[in-house]
Structure formats: structure tokens, C-alpha cells
């Protein structure tokens, strides 16, 4: 049964999370539309997979599909047949923006019923084309979906529902760009900080410092423009670094790669096709090179690690963070490295027309620190249950509140939103809420999720609460009420040392034993200094009232 129908073929099952990543990789605009409607593949494709289209197609069409599918001897080919069915209906789907979620799902579910016998040849031809444009990691990393039960056992079963985009193994990245012909080739974008890139990097990688997105948005926009120019030129010149598939590489450390995820999310939000992430980042690359060199240097992979000067670094020295000073002439810079270095060394003069991958924010403000009238308490953060008290300090305990720097890689496992996507039902008019008489402050901002996704939002501060309204992109002027937090539940406001406009709000309860963190929210706020000062002053008024 599982040879051609994937296991876990059920609501919210892994096969459907994988299918969404495939749609995003090839048709990001269509994927974005369905995401906006909150339509997941299992809501319309459950019976597509479960019955191999027999629930919707005539007997003749079903037999033709089954014959072709079995002849392919590739269980993953069903994914590309499903993808082509969506692609062929793309224009009709996108035209249903005003339709309800249920109406769109019903249309999607019945789409295969329109297939005729004469359509099957074209269906398979297009599926084969899309298949040839898909990285091999799509199959290799998910082979356990098909076959025997024993093969289906996987120790490291990543949660695809949380995946930002399709992940590519570092071994495929290295092998793909050595191949000739029409196969998948990657243009690797190294998003680590400059000091890490300088210490050692993939010799064919273009450097895009993700820190710039917050530190210097205009320079980041110029870097993105140079990236796209470098990609185009490397493809035209036939460079080994060339490839139409963008693959972003981070360090492999989750806390460090948060900013890379933000950059990656921007590319996805701009509907850039063929966007992926290097699985495990640079750490995985180093480990892979060390593993394949165990059998001897004749493997020929040693030249892949280089420093910004262009000199080769051995795998062992790269792992140790040291670069080799060998005099081998093969350390010449590639086309991409030349453009990266040129970009770094020239003065930063932003062109009048820069690519609009991100919106510029205002100049970062200085970090803030306030001395409070009560002594600091030890902050003990822990997960709590929904039955715990929210937003009210314990009787007889002074509220604890502070504003200051956040540790460079301070991460928290608590969900950063006070409401789940499924619960976010109330839709409001943004301007109506801004003009409410009890709204004292309004700050346009961008909500930042742990995954790196960024959502245009508005922070509204009243005498007692702070609201986050997330804009509905498909409905101009309207927003969801994303969160509602009592001001007296704010226990800490912090900013990143490198990115002072990225503000983190922590909410919780104070007790004699410390602080219980209940929720965490992060926002990119232009003129963050003014915003946090105003919010702090309003919080102090609330706390003073409670004290009195």
C-alpha cells in the first residue's frame, strides 16, 4: 500500500506539509495565496493522494494516470502530477480572492475531475519537466514516506509544518554545481556575519550579511541587487558558481540563523521561485567535507573552502577556524567572490532605484537603559500552564519591569504570539482603531516570528493595554487583532545589541521567587527609542497606580 501512496496520508499529515513546500518552491505566488486563505494541502488533496485521483476522474482517465504513474517507477512522481493540476488552474485559483475559504477548497478538490484522456500526455510531460527542476533532496530526505514499515522509521523526523522552505543537503549542493547539463544548479548565498564568512566559506558562495537588513537597510538593498546581478552573470558566463536555484546558507546554529531566516522570509514574500536553505548550514558543510576526506585527498573537495583572500583552506583548518597559507594558484577568486569583495570595498552609495526586497526603516537608535525605583530581582523564566494567572502581580509583591540590552543570542522557547493562527478571527478597520479616543500611542511596525517571517503590523497603546494589529495584505485597511496584552504584565523590554530596532516584549507574572514568562513578542519598530520610551512611561503609570 505504501509503495505508491505515502504513509501518514491523513489530515495534517507529513505528505501534505511536503507538498506545500514543493508548491512554494515552484509556484510561490500560488502558495502565498493559499497560505493567506489558510488553505493547507490536506484540506483539498487528501483524497487525491489517498485514491490516486480515482475519486474524481473517470475510469478511463484514472487508468491512464495509474499506467503512467506505475511506469515511472517513482513514487514521488504523484507529487508532480498534483502540482501540475494546480499550476494549470493557477489563474482561476488566484482570481478567487473574494471567495470564501470553503469555496476555494471545494474548487481545488474537484479540479482533477476536469481532466480528459487527451490531457494525460501533457500532464505527464509537464510533471517530468517540474521534476527535473526539483532538487534531489526532495526525494532523498523524505524517502521514508514510501516503502516498507522498516524503511519508514526515521530517527531525525523534522517537523515539515514548521519548515520555512525546502531544505537541501550540503552534499547535493557540492555535487550539483559540478554537473554539466540541465540539472539543478545552485547559487549559494552565505548569510553569516562578515567575520564568520571571512574565516572560511564555500568558495562559490556570494556573501549577503543578514545583519545588514536591520543595521543598514539601504546597504542591504544594494547587496541584494548585487546578488541578483552576480547570479545572472554567473549563469551567463557558465561559472561553476552559477545556478538559477537560490540556496541560503547560515551557520547551522539556530540562535545565530534567526536573521538569515528573516532575509529568507523576505525573498519568499516577494514570490521568488527556487528558494531553498542549506540543511545544517556551514557546520554541516564542514562536517561533510571532513567525512568524505577520510578516504584520502583524491576526492578533490578540498578546494571548496576558501577565505575572502581567495586562498584555499584545508577542511581540518577550516574546522578549527584557521585558514591555510598555502601558495597554490588554485585559490584564485571565483566570479562571485570577486563581486562580493568589490561590494565590500566600495563606498556605500545607495542608488536611487534599489530593489524592493525590503522596506527601509529609519536609522537605528541608541540602546536604552532605565534605572527603576525598585531593586532588580533574579529573573527565573519557566513554562507555565494556561491556568496560571495572567497580567496581575501577586498581592504584596512589587512589579518587576526593566528595559535594557538583550543578550546577543538570547532565545526563548515560548510561543511569541498570544493567539494561534486558528484563533485569529476578529477583523478590524485599522484607521478606526487608531482613531479610538482611548488610544494614546500608535507605532507602525513589523511583527517578527521565530521562523523569520515578518508581518506588517501596528502597535496601539491604551491606558492599560497594548494591542498588535496584523495587516491583512489581501484586504487593504483591515487587520487581525494579533495580540492583546495588559501593560502591567510587561516584565521586560529588550533590544538586540546589533539591531536596536528589533524590540522584544516579555510578558509574565512576578512573585517572591522571580518572574514567570508567559509570552514573548518581537517587533521591528522604526524610531524604536521613541516608541519604547512612550510605552515605558505608560507602563510606569500603570505600575504606580497599582502600587498606590
Automatic annotation (TrEMBL):
InterPro entries: Rab-GAP-TBC_dom (IPR000195), Rab-GAP_TBC_sf (IPR035969), Rhodanese-like_dom (IPR001763), Rhodanese-like_dom_sf (IPR036873), TBC1D23 (IPR039755), TBC1D23_C (IPR045799). Residues 305-332 are annotated as: Disordered. It is found in: Golgi apparatus, trans-Golgi network. SUPFAM superfamilies: Rhodanese/Cell cycle control phosphatase (SSF52821), Ypt/Rab-GAP domain of gyp1p (SSF47923). The keyword Transmembrane helix does not apply. It comes from the Eukaryota. Residues 182-294 form the Rhodanese domain. Residues 307-327 have a biased composition (Low complexity). GO terms for cellular component: cytosol; trans-Golgi network. The keyword Zinc does not apply. GO terms for biological process: embryonic brain development; nervous system development; retrograde transport, endosome to Golgi; vesicle tethering to Golgi. Keywords: Developmental protein, Golgi apparatus. Residues 1-73 form the Rab-GAP TBC domain. This is TBC1 domain family member 23. It comes from Neophocaena asiaeorientalis asiaeorientalis. The lineage of its organism: Eukaryota, Metazoa, Chordata, Craniata, Vertebrata. The gene is TBC1D23.
Amino acid at each position: 500500500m505504501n509503495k505508491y501512496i505515502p504513509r501518514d496520508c491523513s489530515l495534517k499529515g507529513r505528505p501534505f506539509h511536503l507538498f506545500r513546500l514543493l508548491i512554494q518552491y515552484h509556484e510561490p505566488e500560488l502558495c502565498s495565496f493559499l497560505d493567506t486563505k489558510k488553505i493547507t494541502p490536506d484540506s483539498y488533496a487528501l483524497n487525491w493522494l489517498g485514491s490516486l485521483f480515482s475519486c474524481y476522474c473517470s475510469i478511463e482517465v484514472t487508468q491512464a494516470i495509474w499506467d503512467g504513474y506505475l511506469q515511472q517507477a517513482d513514487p514521488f512522481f504523484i507529487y508532480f502530477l498534483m502540482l501540475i493540476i494546480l499550476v494549470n488552474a493557477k489563474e482561476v485559483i488566484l482570481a478567487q480572492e473574494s471567495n470564501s475559504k470553503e469555496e476555494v477548497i471545494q474548487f481545488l478538490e474537484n479540479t482533477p475531475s476536469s481532466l480528459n484522456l487527451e490531457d494525460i500526455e501533457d500532464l505527464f510531460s509537464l510533471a517530468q519537466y517540474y521534476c527535473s527542476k526539483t532538487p534531489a533532496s526532495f526525494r532523498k530526505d523524505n524517502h521514508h514516506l514510501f516503502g516498507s514499515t522498516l524503511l519508514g522509521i526515521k530517527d531525525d523526523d523534522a517537523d515539515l509544518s514548521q519548515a520555512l522552505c525546502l531544505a537541501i543537503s550540503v552534499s547535493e549542493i557540492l555535487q550539483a554545481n559540478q554537473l554539466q547539463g540541465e540539472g539543478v544548479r545552485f547559487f549559494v548565498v552565505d548569510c553569516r556575519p562578515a567575520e564568520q564568512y571571512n574565516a572560511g566559506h564555500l568558495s562559490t558562495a556570494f556573501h549577503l550579511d543578514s545583519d545588514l537588513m536591520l543595521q543598514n537597510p539601504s546597504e542591504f538593498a544594494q547587496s541584494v541587487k548585487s546578488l541578483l546581478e552576480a547570479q545572472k552573470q554567473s549563469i551567463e558566463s557558465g561559472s561553476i558558481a552559477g545556478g538559477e536555484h537560490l540556496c541560503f546558507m547560515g551557520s547551522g546554529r539556530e540562535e545565530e540563523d534567526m536573521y538569515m531566516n528573516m532575509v529568507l522570509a523576505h525573498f519568499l514574500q516577494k514570490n521568488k521561485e527556487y528558494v531553498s536553505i542549506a540543511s545544517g548550514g556551514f557546520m554541516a558543510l564542514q562536517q561533510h567535507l571532513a567525512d568524505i576526506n577520510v578516504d584520502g585527498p583524491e576526492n578533490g573537495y578540498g578546494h571548496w573552502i576558501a577565505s575572502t583572500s581567495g586562498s584555499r583552506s584545508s577542511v581540518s583548518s577550516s574546522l578549527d577556524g584557521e585558514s591555510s597559507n598555502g601558495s597554490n594558484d588554485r585559490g584564485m577568486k571565483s566570479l562571485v567572490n570577486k563581486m562580493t569583495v568589490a561590494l565590500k570595498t566600495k563606498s556605500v552609495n545607495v542608488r536611487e532605484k534599489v530593489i524592493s526586497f525590503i522596506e527601509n526603516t529609519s536609522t537605528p537608535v541608541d540602546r536604552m537603559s532605565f534605572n527603576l525605583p525598585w531593586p532588580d530581582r533574579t529573573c527565573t523564566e519557566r513554562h507555565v500552564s494556561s491556568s496560571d494567572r495572567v497580567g496581575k502581580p501577586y498581592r504584596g509583591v512589587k512589579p518587576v519591569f526593566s528595559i535594557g540590552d538583550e543578550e546577543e543570542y538570547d532565545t526563548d522557547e515560548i510561543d511569541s504570539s498570544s493567539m494561534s493562527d486558528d484563533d485569529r478571527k476578529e477583523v478590524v478597520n485599522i484607521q478606526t482603531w487608531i482613531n479610538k479616543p482611548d488610544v494614546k500611542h500608535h507605532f507602525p511596525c513589523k511583527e517578527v516570528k521565530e521562523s523569520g517571517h515578518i508581518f506588517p503590523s501596528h502597535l496601539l497603546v491604551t491606558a492599560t493595554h497594548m494591542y498588535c494589529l496584523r495587516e491583512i495584505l489581501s484586504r487593504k485597511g483591515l487587520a487581525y487583532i494579533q495580540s492583546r496584552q495588559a501593560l502591567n504584565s510587561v516584565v521586560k523590554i529588550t533590544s538586540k545589541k546589533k539591531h536596536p530596532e528589533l524590540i522584544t516584549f516579555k510578558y509574565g507574572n512576578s512573585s517572591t521567587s522571580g518572574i514567570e514568562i508567559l509570552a514573548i513578542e518581537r517587533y521591528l519598530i522604526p524610531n524604536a527609542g521613541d516608541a519604547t520610551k512612550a510605552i515605558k512611561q505608560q507602563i510606569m503609570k500603570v505600575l504606580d497606580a497599582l502600587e498606590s
